[in-house]
Amino acid sequence: MNDGRSIRGNLLGGDRRRIRDFAHDEDGMVTIFAGFMIFCMVMIGGIGVDMMRHEMERVRLQAIADRAVLAAADLDQELAPEAVVNDYFAKSGAADAISGIVVDQGLNFRRVTVDAEMTMNTQFMDYLGVETLRVPALSTAEEKINKVEISLVLDISGSMRHNSKMQNMKDAANTFIDTVLRQDTGNQISINLVPYSAHVNIGPDILNLLNVNPVNPRHDYSHCVEIQDQEFDKTGLNDERNYFQMQHFQWKLYSGEAPGVKNTLYDTVCPRYSYERIIPLSKDAEFIKSQINQFKPRTQTSIFLGMKWGVALLDPNTNDIVSSLAGQGVVDSEFSNRPAAYSDEETLKTVVLMTDGVNTQSRRIRQPYYNSASEVLHWSRYNLQYYLNNYVSPRHRDRFYEVHYTAAQGDLLLNNICEAAKAEGIIIWAIAFEATEHSENVMRNCASSPSHFFSPEGTEISDSFSSIARQINQLRLIN
After folding, report:
1. Phi/psi at 344 (nearest 5 deg)?
2. Do the beta carbons of residue 195 and residue 170 sit within 8 Å?
3. Alpha carbons 107 and 95: distance in angstroms, whole number
4. Which of 366, 365, 381 is closest to 263 using CA atoms?
5. Whether the predicted model's global pTM rises above the 0.90 cut
6. pLDDT digits (tens, 9 = 90+) for 22-70
């Protein structure tokens, strides 16, 4: 009996020891923990993969939405905005993603909003109970034509007669006019057309509204006024001073015209023909284009004078002149309160300045030979070089004229007026058309930035004008 109890006791004691040893045995615990950690790491990595896929899909869907609304909001777009958006999504394989399209448009704007959403199946997060992720996209684009005041300053100097430059410029300028002056722009956009060569013909209407010195002989042959150098340091005209009317005469004889043979008078220093006059603040595209289409290459180049008048017609100090012109019916009554103040955030002021050349030397008849009505009449009948060659001794000819502007002086004055305009927030687009390196540098310095400068060749000038027109009718992505 005792032996039996002893045996059972030994057996029970052995089981207890084994149970106790098993409870204290730690072999394999690290393996279990490592397995758990690996599982967690795989799940975290998997969540990262799902989130990365989600972001890639979101960016793709947002890009589709952005492109769609940009195309749909374009005021030149002839298709219905909804149809454009649907077409973009369909061709991108996301036709079912569109949740809603909202179009708001009026006379001078179009705003398109698209709300899109996709569902993406997860690959790892579904183990955590998240089987899908929502992929949203919201985009709005608007093209809006605010009030825009444009001065189109075009070179019609003699060098434009070469290499079809005049015709190429006309075609480009006409395209520009058609792009910015559309039926839906209403009274939002006004254009000042400023043709220039050796001078700028401001026309009798503007001339009569300036303080022109009565002592200086007045005439009706052409309509230019002299501007003092210091006035190029500011954008406006000086309404406190008297201007002198520019002398009416032609200086040059041209190749093929033998001295003393031909008394040419069609290339006067101040452009003389009505189609060479400034057109102030107009929205009449056909009238502006008809003027441009009559341009002919004339005499020399004074870029700085063209720029000065282009800027002056954007300066609010000119409002009294514009208001008077509106009262006379010369300017549309809708523009009678223009140019707007520089502080007007709703108005964009911009100059498109084009030249194919450089500032050249310019002469004037000395005052003793141009100070009476009879002398004004005399020089309207005689080319200066023709008269000097036929009627004046060679040793006395230089008494009759003087240099009024040098080429270097013209470059300086152009730089001054460009800097003054940029300081007031006027945007300057500069086009150096088949120009010299010197002219390109001068025009590049005048432009608001390097991206506002163009140097086209041949028919490329149309691309330059079209690019500027599109950017003036700027399309902006809101969200």
Report:
1. -75, 105
2. no
3. 30
4. 381
5. no
6. 556 655 556 666 666 666 676 677 677 778 888 888 899 999 999 999 9
